[in-house]
What does this fold into?
Amino acid sequence: MVHRKRRRRLALPDPSARGTGVGAAVPTGSALAVAGGVALVLFGCLAVAAFAANESTTRTVPALYAHEGAFSYRAQAEPGPVYPTGSLTTGAPVFTRLVDTLGVAFRYRLATEAPEDVHGTIRLDAVVSDTTGWKRTFPVSPRHTFSGPTARTAGTFDVRAFEDLVTTARQQTAAPFASVSVELRPVVELSGSVGATPVDASFDPALTLSYDNTTLRPIPAPDAEAGAAPPYEPRVEVSGEEVVTTPLALGCRCRSPTRGRFRHSESASRSPPFSWPARFSPGPPAVAAWPSASRAGTATGSCRPARSSRRSAG
It folds into this structure.
């Protein structure tokens, strides 16, 4: 008897089983979602890095910033022919027999288009002097601090005390009548930075009022042109450096396939026609000719071998 061996059947994997067989090679929906999220995060990081990639340089600006100011004064008086409304404002003469006190103010501004980070102090004084050489300072507004590009200071100038001081000085010195003046002088001390320039400066303009024993009157600056107005709004420009930011070009410059093909075809159409070199010239095309007999058993241009010809001749 012949014993037949039974063939063992191979066990096929169960597709429903997890972690084994064919089913384990197919990614699930959650795995795809995680992979997509990671790719999106990486792409976002690259985009942020490309956006933030900038090149910074500095350049000198003739007028990086400017100190600007504005003087003002006002007073109250008895209404009458001189002051019909009972008040006077900046620019009007101050008659000392009609005005007891004068309110004065000064506004400061740091004018610039560059980024600034400044702070400082500001005060306001009234400096009285005459041509004989004596001088006296009246504090109008005490020093106070400020932060930012603007500041303001204001106070009161005592007109009666000013006249008493002038009278006493003349009596004590026995000097002849001399020209007396009052300088409204603010003092601004500034620190910080503007653009790429550190700032450590002071600004102390002056508005001068002349006194002729009866009237205080604003006058132009000593170095002003003839007919100029008093410097109610002084301005001083300052040069410095500012930061210029230029975005960097990231990535490669790729040429458009369509544009490349267009250029290629355009250049090809403009190129001269190809010509063979003289020694490699194929010459004129060959013309087929019927075979002609040159001698017995041989035909020129025949495709048959010569041995066949001799057999036919025999």
